[in-house]
Structures are given as structure tokens and as C-alpha cells.
Amino acid sequence: MVSISSIQDALRALTAQVSLLNQEVGGRLDLRPVDRDCLYLISQHGPMAPSALARLTGLHPATMTGVLDRLEKGGWIARERDPGDRRAVLIRPLGDRVPEIVSLYAGMTRALDGILDRYSPEERALILDFLTQVTDAAATAKDSL
User: Fold this and answer.
1) Alpha carbons 13 and 21: distance in angstroms, whole number
2) What is the pLDDT of residues 45-95, one digit of tens each?
3) Helix or strand holding residue 58 (H, E)
4) Cβ contacts of residue 90 below 8 Å, gap of 6+?
5) Does residue 32 sit in helix, strand or coil?
6) Which fold has domain 14-94?
7) pTM above 0.90, yes or no
8) Distances 46 to 13, 34, 54, 79, 93 between C-alpha atoms, Å
9) Alpha carbon distance 114, 135 (integer Å)
10) Residue ranges, CATH 1.10.10.10, the chain
11) Residue 48 has what DSSP assignment?
12) Which residues are paired to 89 by β-bridges?
């Protein structure tokens, strides 16, 4: 029988290895960890106002300005006027550099595809449910700090 602590240990090991992979990718793309995380969130939730991203990440607005400056300078995002409120700004991801990211994660993507191919659709649904709940738990833990 698999113990809860062995699953928790495996999650910690996964977190460490994914963090190291992300650090390596970020280093090759000149993206700081916070920049990479914000870019991901913009890609998933954008276009969005900088204040919305600051709330989502918990970053101070001044810190967010620095992150957005770096992402814009690197060609990752664009700041544009909000068509609904010309005084406001929206940030949106740019697709020009996406192939760079995709190529650096290609090995992990192939490995993950191979691993998931070994599971039935029902097992993949269980894995997805578990990962979704763990992600939600991490967000809740972060918000409670």
C-alpha cells in the first residue's frame, strides 16, 4: 500500500525537478522566475490589466511594473490601451517567441506524453482531478499566508 507521506515526498520531488527545469529554461530565455510565472498567467488569463495580474500573483504594483517592463523589453508581451476604457492599459502575450519556449520544453512534453499514454482515459481523469485539487490547495495555502 502506498502511504500518504510517500505521495507527499513524490510531490516535493516533482516540485523541485520542475522548478529546476523552469530555472534552466528561464536562464536560457533570460526570464526570471517571477517573469516566467507572470508570462504564464498572462498567457492563460490575458489580456488583462496590470492591477489584475498583481492581484492574481500577490505582487506589489511597483514590482509588477518592473516585471512587465522586462517582459515587454524581451518581446514577450505588449501593453495596449483598453478599448473599453482608453485611460486603462491591458497586457497581452505576444506569440513571436513561443517557439523558443516550446522547443526548450519539448523533451519534457514528449516524456509526459509517453507517460500519460500508458494510462486509460479513466486513470487520466483521476490524475487530472488529483492535480487540479493539489493546485487549488497550493493556491489556497498561498492566499492564507
Assistant:
1) 12
2) 979 999 999 998 989 989 999 999 999 999 999 999 988 888 889 999 998
3) none
4) 46, 47, 48, 49, 79, 80, 81, 82
5) coil
6) Arc Repressor Mutant, subunit A (1.10.10)
7) no
8) 31, 17, 13, 11, 7
9) 23
10) 14-94
11) B
12) 81
Q: Cell digits for 128?
A: 487530472
The string of DSSP codes covering 64-124 is: HHHHHHHHHHTTSEEEEEETTEEEEEEEEE-STTHHHHHHHTHHHHHHHHHHHHTS-HHHH
Backbone angles phi, psi at 87, to 5 degrees: -80, -20
H-helix or E-strand spanning residue 7: helix 4-29
What would the grid cell of residue 76 be?
Answer: 514577450
Q: CA–CA separation, 8 vs 25, rounded Å?
A: 26
13-32 per-position pLDDT tens digit: 999 999 999 999 999 999 99
